[in-house]
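Final report, Chapter 2: Outcomes

The project's central promise was a pipeline that accepts a single protein chain and returns its three-dimensional structure in a standardized token representation, suitable for archiving and comparison. That pipeline is now operational. To close this chapter, we reproduce one record exactly as it appears in the project archive, with the input sequence first and the structure output second.
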Amino acid sequence: MTDSSLAELSNTLFSVSVALYSAALVAYCAELAFGRRRRRAEELVGAETGQGGGVALADRPAAGTAAETPGANRWGVVALGVTVLGALTHAGVLLTRGLATDRLPWGNMYEFATAVVLVAVVAFVVFAVRSPNLRHIGVFMMAPVILSLVAIGLGLYTEAAPVVAALRSYWLAIHVTAAILGFGIFMVSGIASVLYLVRSRPGAEAGTGLVSRLPSPAALDRLAHRTAVFGFPIWTFAVIAGAIWAEAAWGRFWGWDPKETWSFVAWVVYAAYLHARTTAGWRGRPAAWVNVVGLAVMIFNLTFVNLVSTGLHSYAGVD
């Protein structure tokens, strides 16, 4: 295939990925919609008979948990399968674009942001396979993923082309790859903390609405913490690698360029989050708020700092 054909294929796969993620979102919605029918029926019968409808107390779902019907479980499996298929086509977007340009496919904001979202999807899939109960946050993962990809396609798209001379370095593979991995993992962590804040509100545990169908607050907090623990050293390495590249390219390790400054701010916020979770008085909701602020800083660093501020990183906005 010619380079132009590969670039066109990349664009087509981008649209296919959005379509598949949208289909997965519908399936996750179906899982939430049908996943509690059995439990609600048991509760209603129990209320009428005063004996729990003949269901032993030990056999009933714990408060705040969802007993899945076979149909709901099938919807969840379908949703996860479509998500995996979407991730494969999503990876194809970057692969074909890289082949079309004969370089690593994260040399501009469009490619960088696309790769970040892919990492977030893969991280979610890994945790959902290991802990099937986490499939219930699929709606809240896929919705931001779809919105992000639509925004990326509409606002950040650029034609496939070679990178500028300043980015033709092996540090592109080291520094930017680490930044992509760290950002994508932090995206999952931040979403988990947002859901934890919603799920841990007073009265949410005993509710019967959509919030009560989420995993327990402990499970959401555990997901947020584990992903942050995994992403923090990767982001630390990205900041250090960026400083080394800066010394090789510009003759100084650190110059408080806006991109450097906000990358360091993000590092400080995530360090504060990890410390907060081990500090009395900061565990739980206060620590989760710090994690949400961390995700907000990461998004600000990608969007506002790259698109509005000026600095040595303005030519590409990817490192």
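Archive annotation: The longest helix spans residues 217-250.
This record, like all others produced under the grant, will remain available to the consortium after the project formally closes.
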